[in-house]
Each structure stands twice: as C-alpha cells, then as structure tokens.
Design goal:
119 residues, mainly beta, seven-stranded mixed β-sheet, four-stranded antiparallel β-sheet
Length: 119
C-alpha cells in the first residue's frame, strides 16, 4: 500500500508560478510510474503529466509545467509556470508500480490539492 500526500496548492494570479509536491510512502518509490491529474468543477479528471524514466505532458501544459522526481525523497513535483485561469482545478498525484512509462490506470491516488488562478 502506498500513501500519497500532495501539497503546494493555493490561490495565485494569472502568470504566477506554483510548485506542487507529492510525498509517497514506501521503500520502492523508484519503481513507480507517477502522474499528475487535475479536475476542474463540472469537468472530468484529466491527465496533466507523468514521469517514470521519461516525462510526458498534456498539450495544454507543455512548455509551462515541468514534472520531476526525487527518488531519495520519495517525492514527485509539478512546477507550474505562466499559470492561467483555466489551470484552476484540484490537482491529484497518482502512482503505479510498473515498467510501463505511462500506465492507463494508476493504483494509488492522493487526496488532491486545490489550485486557483485568478485573472
């Protein structure tokens, strides 16, 4: 069982930056594919970024967001720059122990952290 705890959300203005963190429990963090997803009010949850050995991004955040991981700290990060009001959502961290770079399903999810971008 893996527990994921997100942090770093908040209220910012358009153009600002935020860095989200996701701390994972367990001793085999490096073997997990990690992902960030988001869900805006009234919308379905959508993929944002993923990392295992390589990184992957949704087109909507490419060039603005950067996903990274620190296996020594069991933590994955999402650096969000040039934020837009349409980035407003609850952001979730997800994990799956797999050799697949971007799983179609993740086994573990965090509780989410709210990001609100005002115009």
């Amino acid at each position: 069982q893996v527990q994921l705890v997100e942090s770093g959300g908040g209220l910012v203005q358009a153009g600002d930056s935020l860095r989200l963190s996701c701390a994972a429990s367990g001793r085999t963090f490096s073997t997990y594919a990690m992902g960030w997803f988001r869900q805006a009010p009234g919308k379905e949850r959508e993929f944002v970024a993923a990392i295992r050995r390589s990184v992957y991004y949704a087109d909507s955040v490419k060039g603005r967001f950067t996903i990274s991981r620190d296996n020594a700290k069991n933590t994955v990060y999402l650096q969000m720059n040039s934020l837009k009001p349409e980035d407003t959502a609850v952001y979730y961290c997800a994990a799956k122990q797999t050799v697949v770079e971007v799983p179609t399903r993740y086994d573990y999810w965090g509780q989410g952290t709210q990001v609100t971008v005002s115009s």
